[in-house]
Hints:
By secondary structure, this protein is mainly beta. The protein has a single domain, classed as Sortase, Chain: A, CATH 2.40.260.10. Helix content is 9%, strand content 35%. Strands 1-2-3-4-7-8-6-5 form an eight-stranded mixed β-barrel. The protein is globular.
Amino acid sequence: MTSPSRRAVTTAALAALLVSCGGHPGERTSTAPRRETVPPSTPPPSEHSANAARALRRSVPVRLRIPAIGVDTPLIRLGLTPGGEAEVPPVTAHDRAGWYRFSPTPGQTGPSVILGHVTVGAYGDGVFRHLARTRRGDRVEARLENGTTAVFTVDSVRTVAKAEFPADAVYGDVDRPELRIVTCGGPRTGDGYLDNVIVFATLSSTTG
């Protein structure tokens, strides 16, 4: 179980992260599904969740693939800045996603959290530019440092207003290995986005 202090840190870090999505006022907004309000609870089990694979030992993720939307990215480790805010991947021409190191590693029991940009300033599209196109049943592969690949099946994809971000559903305790992938989406406002796109997935198999 996550301790109260640990949960407070992760929730505060998430709130800080959601402010920055690597955007720029001159960039186009990626297509996103209809915005919906998500209650602050873990999504209900799906037919995929019911067949979740056995949890893995801890091993840091080094690469993420989502074949259905053409994502194949190295993963960097993200933590907290000296000011107590969440780190985000650097805004570079070769955008990469990051694993939030205060969450479980992919395949461990609990929600492992992957964060990335939808746009990267003057460089244009980010690594998760098409994340909103992910659909239930899509395959997500997390390659681990120990050579194992944790394979997840998407349970749901949700676009939510940032003001109503379901922190408990993303970071709250669960009793099986799950994955959360978070980026920005929806309409533009100033130099950012109004919404977040969140992919919820469950471990379904392992290879390697």
